[in-house]
Amino acid sequence: MSCNDDDVDCAEVLARVYAFLDHELDGRALTYDEIEAHLDGCGSCLSKYDLERAVRQVLARSCACEHAPDALRMKVLAQIREVRIQVTEDITDSGLPRI
Ligand SMILES: [Zn+2]
C-alpha cells in the first residue's frame, strides 16, 4: 500500500530508513532519490525518519564512540517518543499547540 501516487511502498521505505541514514543502501530495491521523494510526500514515513534521525543526533552529541550502548539508545528513543506523544496530545486537545 502506498501513501501517495508513486509506487514506493511505505513498508519498503521504513525497512530501509536505517540503511538510508547510515548511507548503506544496497541499491537493490530503493535508491536514495526514491526514498527522499517518498519522505517528502508521506507524513508517517517522514515522522519515523525524523525520530530516528533525532535519536542519532542526540547520541552523536552525547557519545563520542561510534556505536552508543543499546541501553542509552533505548532511553533516548523512549524520551523522544514521550515528548512527541505529549505534543501530539496537546495539538489534538486544543486544536493548537500549547507551548
Ligand atoms: Zn510512506
Give your account of this protein's structure:
This protein has helices at 10-15, 17-22, 32-41, 43-62, 70-94. It has 99 residues and is mainly α. The chain has one domain (10-94). Helix 4 (43-62) packs across helix 5 (70-94). The longest helix is centred in the C-terminal third of the chain and has 25 residues, at 70-94. Bound molecules: zinc ion (ZN).
Layout of strands and helices, then pairs:
Layout lengths: L9 H6 L1 H6 L9 H10 L1 H20 L7 H25 L5
Summarize this structure as a short list of keywords or feature phrases.
mainly alpha; 5 helices; 99 residues; flat; 68% helix; binds zinc ion; single chain
Q: End-to-end distance, in Å?
A: 36 Å
Q: How big a fraction of the residues is strand? A: under 5%
Annotation, overall tally of beta strands: 0
Structural class: mainly alpha
Write down the Rg.
Answer: 16 Å
Helical segment count: 5
Biggest β-sheet strands, sense, barrel: none
Q: How would you sum up the global shape?
A: flat
Can you write the helix and strand succession as a string? HHHHH
Q: Which ligands are bound?
A: zinc ion
Number of domains: 1
Unreliable spans: none
Q: Whole-number average pLDDT?
A: 79
Helix content: 55-70%
